[in-house]
Amino acid sequence: MGGEDGGEVEKKGRRKFAVLLCADDSDYVKKTYGGYFKVFVGLLGEEGEAWEVYRAAHGELPCMADVDGYDGFVITGSCNDAHGDDQWIKDLVSFLKALDAKKKKILGVCFGHQVWQVPPQAEVMAWSEKTGVEMFRYGDHILGIQGHPEYSKDILRHLLDRLLQRNLIQTCHAEAAKASLDAREPDREAWKRLCKGFLRGNLSWQPAVVPLASTSTP
Q1: Distance (Å) of CA 28 to CA 51, 109, 110, 180, 185
Q2: N or C: which end of the chain has fewer CB within 10 A?
Q3: Candidates 110, 113, 134, 195; catalytic one
Q4: Highest mean pLDDT among 10-24, 104-118, 204-218
């Protein structure tokens, strides 16, 4: 089952969004923040809106008959390869194609953003030395971001420690990443305004490619 909303009673006429979780919550994030769904709602949600969660990595997706009831969808990050052969990834890709056909708002974060090359007619909005496509848009209804606007410094430090414990990152790289975190504060408010404005159709797009310091995780 999917579509959990924390027990809220849906009110007619209010905006409704869905978060498609593509990874399981870590014990730390679940205990400290209540899970990534609450992290995303805390970043993107506004009072009076309905937010629901589907655990896409476990095969949960909204029914197509219910899609028109949503104003937008957020695709989260994942440890998986966006181009992998897992059945849930194939199902998610098919679902996203159906959303695209309906011109539904889609915000893709990291895993939810990845393409080997941007789709035809897509526009690169930002790039960095590390990542050739930090952000792109497709029409006015799809926005992909390679970085993680939902991550706080605390979450990032915990993630680096987890990667170290699992030998998925070298100590020197983890220490360099932590030093970078201490040296500068990511402008989360700017990313927040961008993502919220996109989901609600309040952005005025500027036809410019912007170089960024990479927001991607190691």
Answers
A1: 22, 21, 21, 22, 22
A2: N
A3: 110
A4: 10-24
